[in-house]
Amino acid sequence: MNSIKNHGKLKYKIVLLRLDLNVPLKNGVITDYTRIDKILPIIKFLLNKNSKIIVISHIGRPKGKVNKDLSLKPICECLEKKINKSIKIISENVFKLKKNDFFKDPKDEIVFLENIRFYKEEEKNDLNFSKHLAELADLYVNDAFSCSHREHASVCTITNFLPSFAGLQLETEINALKKVTTEIEKPVTCIIGGSKISTKIGIIKNLIPKFDNILIIGGMANNILEYKGKQIGRSIKEKNCETIIKEIFETSNNYSCKIYYPEDVLVGKSINDKSQVKELNEIKKDDYILDVGPKTINKIKSIIEKSKTVLWNGPAGYFENPNFAKGSYEIAKSIIKKNKDKSIFSVVGGGDTIAVINQINAIKDFNFVSTAGGAFLEYLEGKELPGIKALN
Fold first, then answer.
1. Are 36 and 154 in contact (CB under 8 A)?
2. pLDDT of residue 328
3. Which run of H or E residues covers position 338?
4. 161 and 223, same structural domain?
C-alpha cells in the first residue's frame, strides 16, 4: 500500500481526495467535529505540497437522489474557518464536469464535489462512474478508512484508473489497529459494548485467541445475563442468541482468554429515570438495565490497571442520560490515567464511544481514536476491507 507521504511529485497535481465527512447534523448544524478535525493533517499536507484538491465525500444516506438536507455545504463552511481558506462547492452534475473545469482561477486550492451519494452509481460501484471521476484528477488518495469496508465507486473501482495512495489518517488508523491485533503488548484487554451481540460475534471470536480479557458490557451483556439464568426485566436484548453465547464461552475455554460480564447493574423504570444499584438477583420484571454497577466498575478498573493494551468499542450504558453514564466515564478515566504514565496503549472506536469521551473532553487522552464504525469492527474481525484491498 503506497503512502501519499512518500510520493515526491505533488506540486500542481490535482488530487482526488476521498474523505469521510459524514458528521452528525441537527437542523443543518454540525454537532460533532471529530471527523473534520481528523482530516486536517491530509489537507494541510497536500496544500503544503502545492497540490490542488478535489474532495469527494458523503453525508447520510440519500439513496442516489439529491437531498438538500444532506448537502456538504455546512462541512465546507466549517472547514473554511478551520484552515482559513476559501473552498468552492460544486453542485453541478458531476457527469458534466471535465478536468479543465477545475482550478481556472490560480487562487483556487480546494473544491468539494457535492455529496457523492447523490449519485446511485456510487453505491453500485459503477465502473463508468469511477472512470469518469478518475478523469478529473492526476492521482487518487483514500483518507477515509471509515468508508473502506464499502464496495463503492469512489472507494474501490476508482483505483483501477489512477495512481492511488493511502492518506495520512488511513495509514495511522491501520497502524493503530495492527498494534492491538498483531503487534500486541500483553496483557491485552478488549472492552466491547453495543446492543447487538450477533454483529460482534465475529470480532469476539477473532480476538479470543489473541486477547487475555474480553469485557462484554452495554445492551449485549443482557443476553449473557439471561443466558446465565438471570432476570433482565424489560432490558434491551437480542433474540435467538443462545448458540452464539455458548460458542463464545466454549471458544474462550480453548484459549487463556477470560470473558467478563456485569456483576451488578444500574436500573431504572424508563430510560429517563434516576438510577438504582441492583445485584443481579434483585432485578424486577419492570426494570430496565441501563448501566453497569459499582462492583462491575471496580472489576473493570482492576483489569485495565493490569493491562498493557486496551481496545474499547461501545459504551457501558445509556450514557445519554447522565444517571447512566458513570460506567462509561469510569472506563474512560481508568484508561486515561494509565495513558498519562504511558503504561498502556489504547485504541478507542465507534461513534457512541467517541460521543462519551467528547462529553468529558478527553479525545486527546487516548493513543488513537477511530471515527470508523463498521470498518473498525470488520478489520478487527479479520476481514479484508475492499478499500484497502483496492489500494494494495
1. no
2. 96
3. helix 326-340
4. no
